[in-house]
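About this split. The held-out portion is used to measure sequence recovery: a designer receives only the structure tokens and must propose an amino acid at every position. Recovery is the fraction of positions where the proposal matches the reference. Here is one held-out target exactly as it appears in the evaluation file.
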């Protein structure tokens, strides 16, 4: 096995970031899902993601991303997505250092999907600004250890 690779895939809503990440993962991967169906729209999004996954993939639904990486050290892992993970934590307080350490220790390809919120509409609310800032900081921390960072815009990817 060659050296592990960490790929961060960033993009806005409906940009194609998840689809690109799924292509990068290949035919066998562990899909780490961070979302839960809280309403009909989210249920539809989750169902669409499930339909796209190859039969050879397994799915782990968890908020313990570092733990998921530690328990699948030699498997390709696709984490989708950091924004959803962050939003499910009180005050957007996540252990970014533990996630970064688990990514760095992972021995196979780890693909992390996250929303790029720095180019979007300016949030009107304090909680919206807090989320944007927390996710921007988290994205930067993951990009620091990533071997590759891709930005997906309108279904096209750019290597950063």
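Reference sequence for scoring:
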């Amino acid at each position: 096995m060659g050296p592990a690779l960490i790929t961060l895939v960033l993009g806005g809503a409906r940009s194609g970031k998840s689809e690109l990440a799924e292509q990068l993962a290949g035919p066998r991967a562990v899909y780490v899902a961070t979302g839960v169906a809280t309403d009909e729209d989210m249920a539809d999004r989750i169902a669409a993601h499930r339909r796209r996954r190859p039969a050879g993939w397994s799915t782990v639904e968890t908020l313990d991303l570092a733990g998921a990486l530690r328990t699948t050290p030699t498997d390709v892992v696709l984490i989708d997505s950091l924004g959803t993970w962050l939003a499910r934590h009180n005050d957007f307080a996540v252990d970014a250092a533990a996630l970064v350490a688990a990514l760095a220790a992972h021995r196979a390809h780890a693909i992390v999907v996250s929303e790029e919120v720095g180019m979007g509409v300016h949030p009107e609310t304090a909680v919206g600004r807090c989320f944007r800032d927390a996710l921007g900081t988290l994205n930067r921390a993951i990009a620091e250890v990533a071997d590759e960072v891709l930005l997906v815009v309108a279904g096209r990817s750019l290597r950063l």
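Annotator remark: The chain is about 40% helix and 20% strand.
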